[in-house]
Amino acid sequence: NDCGVITDHSNDILECCATDCNGGGICNTSLSNFGCQCDFEKLRRGGRYCTVTYAKTSGNKGFNTLMAQTGTSTAAAIAAGMGALIRNYFVKGYYPTGQINTGNSLEPSNALIKAVLVNSARPLTKVTHIYDPQVSPQGIKATLEKTISRHYPSSVSDEDGHGLAALSRVLPLSGKTTRRLYVNQNLYFKTGDLQTYCFEISKSTPFAVTIAWADPPSDINSVSHLVNDLDLKVLIGKNLYFGNGLTTIVDGVLKTLVDHENNVEHVYVPHAKEGDRVKVTINATNVPVNSPQHIALVISGHFLGDDVQYCPECFEGQVEDCHGQNGIGFKNCSSSGQFSQCYLTSCDSGYFNENYTCHIGSNVRTGVSEISLIEGGSFTYDIRLVDLPTSIVDITVYAPHNGARIGVKSISDGGYQASTQLRFTSSNYATPQKISVHVPVDTVVQVKYVAPIVTTVQSTDPNYNTRQVPSIPVSVADLNAPGLFADKLNVVLKEVNEVGIVPLHLNSTPSHPLYLTYSLPSNATPYLAFQTSETNQVKVSSIALELNQANWFTKSVQLLIHLTQHPNITTTFTIKPSLSTSDPNYASLSLPPLYIHIHSENDQKTTSSGSSMILTFSFVIYISLLLSLII
């Protein structure tokens, strides 16, 4: 009736050898037979000591006599017994079905037994030290509880190592558990070898991965006694864990410190999420002795498959440069662990960029893809050529509907008209020429007006003649309805720490406050931030502004855009605000975007030395523009 109780503080029964308690209970020497008391409720609250037999010097000598015992004297015996149980599990063929099957019999290596034992560990929340082991469990006189400090993803602590071993959590038995065990002891690595396994979490429960190997003896005078160095890496969901939790990537922040000291590496994820993709990677960093090195791999948890279809490419929030069709750009990592398409920001010669895609066609670049104006407003954009032409290139710009509501002009024109023409030669092809667009004021109440500016190209150079240039849609808002105004629709930032200021106001008193939210696109956050005020230097990627009955006309509400660093190339970002209000006159406003033009550092250096710059967007005339439309 002797029994050893191993419990943790997770409210689970882990082990009890007392057969008369059906495998669970606590030892109680107050019972007449010194047997096992089947008090499951007390056991669920967590045991605080182990009990072992010892020979009494008087009375009932050596029979069913128990004492409290702490330290390795008890732990070593229990661990050795667990090792025997692990070997028995594999030899009798329990793996992988959880039932005895001699056809599945497997002679486990020492490394596999060790890896299973470590993989079964679960971190403790506290430990109890017993200072008087020579009394019965009911007579313990001095105890000290200590809370364990463990910062995930670290899987080790000074107090309990990897945690409390519990074989019932790692060795599945048919009908007893739905957890899955995956082992592989036929792995051999030489320096530079890499092996990957991929899974998908099928249930939100703990997930653990362990590798172990028998390391060759080191030189007694070595500073580091690990000879053959292998490293474990687990990518799961949006986090990247390294063996023994010495380094990790959490929310995209990388801390690089790999374990080069131990021949066991363990990753324990207490809260793996259903649907997360898992990528387990084993890398042979250095195997100088007895190459190839044999290792054992153990994985436990609720997971599906071992197939490349489950492999995550990346961790959530990761952004990488990429080469796409006819250009280069960036790609984002989604919550599923897969990269998005390559969003192209720069196209090869002979292609133009529209909506992050490179299209074959025009070598003519326009400085804007869409224009929003109010009555009386104007807007200026650039046109330039990309490649050196072999002959004159004439470009004609046509206003919508033959200039009925919108006029265009070049610098050489006296006034706005239905069309205007630009001429490029081999000497000025890279110098941007400007087109101005204007909407005259009228007194007619009109609905939103949208029409395209059309650009045509003529030249004897076949690289330019009849090439298609994307049309530029122009939306016009009427002044004769409630509107939201910005003093700028285009902001140019050239210097790091430069702040662009965009005052905002309304043209009528709102009945309820208007809340405007501006959020930076993910590809802009490395370079831009919103500043909460001119005096408060707090920088954010999203900001909400309020226009109300007190400030609607004062222009005291300002959007502050801060340039934090230069991009590699001159870039334009588009920011589209969102609006929330209970004012029926403003609730349905359609808000046009704000354009942020950022100069690259190279362009800045070129400007300071007096050299000419080739920019997609070179110079913008600031104008007051409406950010809204009629209801």
Q: Tell me roughly what share of residues is in helical segments.
A: under 10%
Percent strand equals 35-45%
Question: End-to-end span in angstroms?
Answer: 84 Å
| SS elements, strand count | 45
Structural class: mainly beta
Describe the structure.
- With 631 residues, the chain is mainly beta.
- It contains 4 helices and 45 strands.
- It has a 7-stranded antiparallel beta sheet, with no helix packed on it. Strands 39-38-41-36-34-45 form a 6-stranded antiparallel beta sheet, with no helix packed on it. Strands 26-33-32-28-30 form a 5-stranded mixed beta sheet, with no helix packed on it.
- Strand 38 (528-531) and strand 39 (539-540) form a beta hairpin.
